[in-house]
Specification:
The chain is of the alpha+beta class. 27% of the residues lie in helices and 23% in strands. The protein is built from eleven helices and 13 strands. It has a four-stranded mixed beta sheet. A three-stranded mixed beta sheet has the order 3-7-6. A hairpin with a 2-residue loop joins strand 10 and strand 11. About 20% of the residues have low confidence.
């Protein structure tokens, strides 16, 4: 059973084009298949919403729908309500019985004479039936153009809308949702919510099907393409599927060893710093990196020894005695000129 397009979008029959567009965007967000991948009912409902919008958003289609109801598609194809469509061999004087939508239920009469004039006022004014079929978007039937054949133009997909979105570094690692306002070529701003998959990289694109521009001739709407931009993090950087954290430690923590708290994507963790750890050494925390199909990456913690700026003479003497524990010259082999044999 055919659905009433106005009821499908939840608008009145006198709704403006803007009200129809607003209702469509709300229904599309509610039932879009990308948001309900396992819900067949939502997918079917989205198709009904799309079909209703494709008709009511087009002034010519809406006018035909208001007049002929579900039979408007036959009119578009060069046919008429109740039969006698494209390729029909019926005489142009044959009358068709048809009841209009919302009518009284009494049979109404329709004939080619009523439309084309058959020598009446329309014919005397130079009426060309070709204009009727051109306005309806269909082909001109063979009966009126000497048997020539011309294909209808296939519906084209609407244009894609490409838009940059900027998300926090943490959301790019853990995933989540991001709401964004998109302005269509008509000037209407619509708000959509996109699902951000965990581990997405900077510059990657998210495609939301059916949320782009409407087709100019009844085809499928275009897609919304979101280009993801990621803000840098003050402490973490990404290296493939690994995360790098540069961690400041004290001299005593590096020399004597220590257990220090560190932040990770999975929550607070404890890092074990071995005694005698030098600045620049990287310690690995398994599985606390970027989520991926093959499993999580690792968290690499780079040790940065932070020296105090103010010490007493007694403390300075202790540090000088520590220098005696080094073996050899730490900076031997460092030179500008290469040692070429």
């Amino acid at each position: 059973m055919a659905h009433d397009f106005y009821e499908t979008l939840g608008v009145g029959r006198n709704a403006t084009k803007e009200e129809i567009g607003k209702a469509y965007r709300a229904m599309a967000r509610k039932y879009h298949p990308d948001l309900h991948p396992d819900d067949k009912t939502a997918s079917k409902k989205f198709q009904e919403v799309q079909e209703a919008f494709d008709c009511l958003n087009d002034e010519k289609k809406r006018k035909l729908y208001d007049q002929y109801g579900a039979d408007y598609e036959h009119i578009q194809e060069g046919g008429f309500p109740g039969g006698g469509g494209r390729g029909s061999s019926r005489s142009s004087r044959t009358r068709q019985n048809w009841t209009p939508p919302g009518g009284t239920g009494q049979w109404q009469h329709f004939s080619f004479e009523d439309m084309f004039g058959a020598g009446g006022a329309g014919a005397s004014e130079g009426f060309d039936p070709r204009t009727i079929f051109g306005d309806f978007g269909g082909d001109f039937p063979n009966d009126f153009r000497g048997g020539s054949t011309r294909r209808r133009r296939a519906p084209t997909k609407g244009s894609d809308i490409v838009h940059d979105i900027t998300i926090p570094f943490t959301k790019s690692i853990l995933g989540g949702e991001e709401s964004v306002g998109i302005q269509e070529t008509s000037g209407v701003v619509k708000t959509v919510t996109a699902k951000i998959p965990p581990g997405i990289e900077d510059g990657k694109k998210l495609r939301l099907r059916g949320l782009g521009e409407a087709s100019p001739n009844g085809g499928q709407p275009g897609d919304l393409v979101l280009v993801v931009r990621i803000t840098p993090h003050p402490s973490f950087t990404r290296q493939g599927n690994n995360l790098l954290l540069r961690l400041p430690v004290t001299i005593s923590e590096a020399v004597l060893g220590a257990k220090v708290s560190i932040p990770t994507p999975r929550g607070e963790g404890v890092l074990n710093i071995p005694p005698g750890t030098s600045s620049g050494k990287k310690l690995r925390v398994k599985g606390c990196g970027v989520p991926g199909k093959g499993g999580n990456g690792d968290l690499l913690v780079e040790i940065l020894i932070n020296a105090p700026t103010k010490i007493s003479e007694e403390e300075a003497e202790v540090l000088r005695r520590l220098d005696q524990n080094y073996q050899g010259n730490l900076r031997s082999g460092i030179a500008w000129k290469e040692n070429i044999p």
